Fold each of these.
Amino acid sequence: MIGCHIGRNFQVTVSGGSYQEGLTAIIQGHVPGMHITEQEIYGDLLLRKPGVDELSSPRKEPDLPIIYTGVNAADTIEGAGNKNHTNGTPLAILIPNLDRHFIHIKQYQDTNRTPRPGHASYASFMKYGPDDDAIGAGIFSGRYTSTIVAAGYVAKKILNKCGIEVFSYIKELASVRCPEVVDYAQALEYTNAYKKMRHDHDPFYQEIYVKGRITEDMRFLQKTKIMAEIENEISDIRKKAPKFVPGEIKEKYGVHHIVNCPDIEAAQAMTDACNKISATGDSAGGIVEVVATGVPVGLGEPVFNKLDAELGRMLGIGAVKGVEIGAGFAVKDMTGYENNDQMHSEDGKVVFDSNHAGGITGGLSTGQAIVARLAVKGTPTIDKPQHTIDKYTKENKELAAITRRDATIVARIWPIAENYTAMVLLDHLMAYYGYEQMKKLIQQG
């Protein structure tokens, strides 16, 4: 299977499936000397995992990562202080599947003859044949996106050191929109507060990492031993989660308890609208907005590797059916004058009057905030009977309603989009730095 690799300078290869032993992200091109822990990677993974709130599937995967290769096992010389630092070799992050029980596998075995509408199960069967990994949709399941979040966190950490912030939030859910004008500084602050709230309320984050059940000083087999124990304790650990009390969360963190939208009133309206749709057995879609600030002018390449085209590859995220940059499809209703981002100089600096281009023109970054929006469809797994076929005999069939489902996956897509964007930007930033250095060398010569 090809298609599971991205990047030229910062490269990521992913593997695994929903009900295989787990998933893996292998990262190349990252810098040596970076201290990175499983706890901080999990801090992003917990944002997209299922079973957290009333809008997500009840599957109980904790998504606990294990760093397997790419970091120093000990100080390279006595007292060097570089234990657990990246060493420049491929960084492998494993994400074991722990909530993988035969009862769920049997449910898929009993229904896999009849592809679920909206899923890849028919097309993947036709492509790969009877051995297609149809248990939980395999690599076509949303579970594979955990690898993007893990690898993208590494990229985001490097970008942050370079003064680039990448963040994301829900712009629209169930036809309820966040206010059109968003202050990006406030949105970043809100998103960070939302993440802090989720960390504080995640029982695995607290029980496994804060309380030191798994530490970075443990060896791989010691960590897997703990993972085997956790597999049998998932329900008990989940019971330790503090309750999401909306008023208390709003007062303490200044955020909504479920939806990461930088307008609390809109977030509650989104939740209400989504629950109303879910009560009918259906699901809701929406829009995720990603913003990157601090990006220098000139990232990107012409023609086939334009920065906006590279960001368009986020169509590879399951359930994403559209990606727009800046004004996006709205440009069809704008004149050239209205769409153009006019500019002027202030104290020797270029200032743009607007940002309809989303921070990218000609495939190159302009130095403005990069803004991308992703259109996310409603979860295809729904609590309604649907027409389908027997994929072996081609007979017409009816698919029974499925109750174990996400009311929406928009609330789980935003961390994926955030970290995917970070991977693309870091890949181009490394090329940018190399190009700028070569220019200096040539011009000095």
Amino acid sequence: MAKEAPQHPEIGARLAAVREGFSDLSQKAWAEKHGFSPTQYNNWEKGARRIPIEAAEKLCSTYGLTLDFIYRGRRDGLSESASKVL
């Protein structure tokens, strides 16, 4: 059976950019730091699953992101620090 294509690759790419922009942590360490299951987070970052709103809101409040950035890629509304690293 062929592997299913990622359903949310753009969201996953933005999550990876946030992780890499704000830390040098591995996916596993980043997930654990934020209280996410490493397997779940890996699925979000590779685009296999969409990050739930509650988890996205946690990243937004911690890093000055917006849900519009995570889900749609809109950069307006990002904090100054987020704008610099993303």
Amino acid sequence: MPLDCIFCKIVSGGIPSGMVYETARSIAFLDAFPLARGHTLVIPKEHHVKIQELTAEETSDLFGAVGVVAERMERLAPSSLVAVHNGRESGQEVPHVHVHVIPRTAGDGAGPVHSMFARRPKLSQEETAEILEKLKK
């Protein structure tokens, strides 16, 4: 575990957190800088920067915990946003895998994920085929 990772410090008990849920491999706690009341982070206990670094067991445990937290979130709001920033360029601010579970209500001022992207690509059929080939390999 990196000594400077704030989430690893939470896992080890070095930093107190509002623990919401815990499994053998994952923990969920209230976000210190919430976007909405109840905003919760779900993280693997082992340090990994990106989702693709997780083992199959860690992935299963993590997203099982996300499901439990999302269900509990409905005690606060009728819906929730589940989001992962997978790398610095995507907006990941803490380099430790974490899943945001954010309660959502009508009129909360946040839009759909598509509202995050002001410049959307207009792809030709050839470009789409090229992308598809790269992703299928």
